[in-house]
Amino acid sequence: DIVMTQSPDSLAVSLGERATINCQSSQSLLYSSNNKNYLAWYQQKPGQPPKLLIYWASTRESGVPDRFSGSGSGPDFTLTISSLQAEDVAVYYCQQYYSTPYTFGQGTKLEIK
Amino acid sequence: QVQLVESGGGVVQPGGSLRLSCAASGFTFRSYGMHWVRHAPGKGLEWVAVIWYDGSNKNYADSVKGRFTISRDNSKNTLYLQMNSLRAEDTAVYYCARERYGSYDMDVWGQGNTVTVSS
Q1: pLDDT value at position B101?
Q2: Which residues of B touch A (CB under 8 A)?
Q3: Statement: residue B109 has pLDDT above 90
């Protein structure tokens, strides 16, 4: 099974500042036949279902603010929030869909400093 | 309006069974793969199972393999999760989610249904 490891486990950032969350997979998520990385990022707020933010590692889901961006390839990926807003307080998860069982990272809790 | 609504959760004793349902509306259900994901108290998200659009292929997390069965009825626009031999560690909020067409990420989620395994 592919193991997904996020860092840090928790993060406190001031409003308007940049937040960066890292995700590393135990093997490459790059599928050579289509040159796509099989990785998604989700945001989950308390009492709510997860919300898709980013897929194919860097494609923003429709309706997601452009302060959210995804980058990286192979085994190393990053979710960046360019200017933190109060409504961004949540737990963020990366997930690989390269092979089953599809696995999530352990989550990163993002708070306001 | 694209929507997924789960039902069937509740409290069950260890070793018992429960069947979750997920009713889909607002999209062509038979064209999409579907997933179950769970969130145990104090823990992170755990992917549980996936079923192809036509039900021809299914995959499971190791933690539920042999105990849980994912299925679908495309005539009723409904996804199911049959859970047998339930354990305390299966206690969680269970979400159904739609797989994006042409990809494998999950773009639409239900609100979740709570399953509690306790004596």
Answers
A1: 87
A2: 35, 37, 39, 44-47, 50, 59-62, 95, 97, 100, 103-107, 109-112
A3: yes
